[in-house]
Amino acid sequence: MLGLWLTGCASLPSEVDRPVSSALADPTETRIGRAVQARAAQAETHNDSGFALVNSAELAFTSRMVLINAAQKTLDIQYYAIHADETTLRMFDALRAAAARGVRIRILLDDFNTAGKNAQVLKLAFEKNIELRLFNPLSGGRGSMFFRVLGALKDMDRLQRRMHNKIFVADNAVAITGGRNLGETYFGQGEATNFIDADVLAAGRIVRDLSHSFDLYWNNPLAYPAQSLMTAAQLEAMKPPPAATAPRAGQAGPVHGEASASAGGNATGAARPPTAKSAVRKVTALDGSVSVAEPLPDSTNLALLEWIWAPSTLLVDKASKIAADADAVEASQDTTVDGLLQLMAEAKSDLLIVSPYFVPGRRMMDQFAAIRRKDVRIRVLTNSLASNDAPAAHVGYARYRKELLGLGIELYEMRAEQEGTLSGLSSLGSTGSAGGSRASLHAKIVVLDDTLLVIGSMNLDLRSQLQNSEVALVIRSSKLSADTTRLIEPALAKGAYKVELQDGQLVWRAPQGSQLKDSRTEPDASLGLKLMLMLIGPLAPDEML
After folding, report:
1. Which residue among 58, 199, 376, 533 is least packed, with the fewest CB closer than 10 Å?
2. Main-chain phi, psi angles of 55, to 5 degrees
3. Tell me: the pLDDT tens digits for 187-208?
4. Which residues are CB-neighbours of 7 under 8 A, at least 6 positions away?
5. Backbone angles phi, psi at 348, to 5 degrees
């Protein structure tokens, strides 16, 4: 067991061969690129970028599979976490097939979650035409997440600064970005927990901007080729025995915001059909109705989506934000969250915020107060203590709750889905297994004045602002903004508790039609979680939550 814990390098290599490469120069060399060009001409628009909302777990999976299968030249994939499970196995097989037909695949992965079963994802690095680099790697073994974190405590600054970007680009022509990592819980297939999330498909010029940001991270000295950190033989030695099973629930790590679940299977297994328990699932539609859905399909026609051409810009952190001397450069550069806060300050009438981990900090609270003085309505949807996959994050939010309500900000906390019921969820493509599963909010969205939509990887917390690197698209479109608001508002009414102040005390108003009762304490939360909130609430600094 000790040997498994210590598997891997004790320190990071000093001499690393890191060949420089870049995104496909001319997307119109490919079918996808020519299709985008034709669609833009057909739309008769002066805007150079098109967008389509990805508002369900099914579409999130199928969109990525379509891009893998359609790519002719390149696939560039950048994520905070890729889990080795039944869902990603199918994606890995599609990636191998793309590589076999000559597609160059670059995968850039934050190193934090590459332990235990999830370490098997690194085997993709040893496939022809697939390169895999790990960003800001941790020294030490990968045998288990517990020992990995334990071994990294000696370098807390490196441990805490993570690459949180999420980008998926095909032939530098079409991309997906948003809140999702890759894994079954992000695609509605988890048994214990499913994340309620949102992405956006992008085409045209904005994709080239995303690709440029990918290149800057890919060629950064903090990006280590997987082969420089681990051999194929070491990964094979860590491979779980065939009969081994793993818990489906996510494991909370020091970097909140992403469950580090390591469920079912490994990155090198053959494609397998969905298990019997996932063969039939209940899916909650946007109007709250529940229907039965087939297992995730592997293809769909993205041309059938409603593409909206609109002005846009990219907010993305510089890779130097996570460097060892990051504190020295922070003052000289704005971050993605800084840019978002500047946009929010321009709100004139309405601000709708979806942030799973909402820890404002003093500076952000002052800005909210200034926005409210302009009589702007502010609504915030975040996780409840029970639905939060990182309860420590709730601690930071809870200490500002009364002050936020005092400013007139409307607070909604996502209801955790209870076993055997799906009636509480109604938006953002939320799903549950046939037996019922817990829902955890994971989407990161801001809608400003019904005209500006921001969707990306960032939370409104100090970790996203000061420590993690983030990416977001800013899209000026009344249509997209209205469509997104229509996705969120049913969740406010039916899937979340509304928090209010009554005689100076917090009251949680039960969701409409839920047959639940109002509560004067954290609803659905266990006694242990409530005690944790009481004990560490006054002590933990905001930036660590």
Report:
1. 533
2. -110, 15
3. 989 888 889 999 999 999 999 9
4. 141, 142, 143, 234, 237, 238
5. -110, -25
For residue 437, pLDDT over 80 is answered with: no
Asked if 17 and 228 count as a contact pair (C-beta separation under 8 A), the reply is yes
Extract the runs of DSSP E, i.e. beta strands, from 356-469.
377-383, 410-414, 431-432, 438-441, 445-448, 452-456
Contact assessment for residue 68 and residue 94, using Cβ atoms and an 8 Å cutoff? yes
| β-bridge pairing 74-79 and 167-170 | antiparallel
- Return the structure tokens found at 118: 């999830």
Residue keyed to tokens 């009969």: 243
Q: How many CB atoms lie within 10 A of CB 387?
A: 27
The answer to pTM > 0.70 is yes
Type and span of the H or E element at 268: none
In the block, residue with structure tokens 């970790």: 463
CA 6, CA 186: separation in Å to the nearest integer?
30
> Which residue(s) pair with 308 in the sheet?
51
pLDDT tens-digit readout, 269-323? 333 333 333 333 443 332 333 333 344 445 456 667 889 999 999 999 999 999 8
| Total residue count of the chain as it appears in this document | 545
CB 68 within 8 A of CB 75: yes
Laid out side by side, the sheet with 505-509 consists of 312-316, 471-476, 452-456, 445-448, 350-354, 377-383, 410-414, 496-502, 505-509
pLDDT score recorded for residue 333:
64
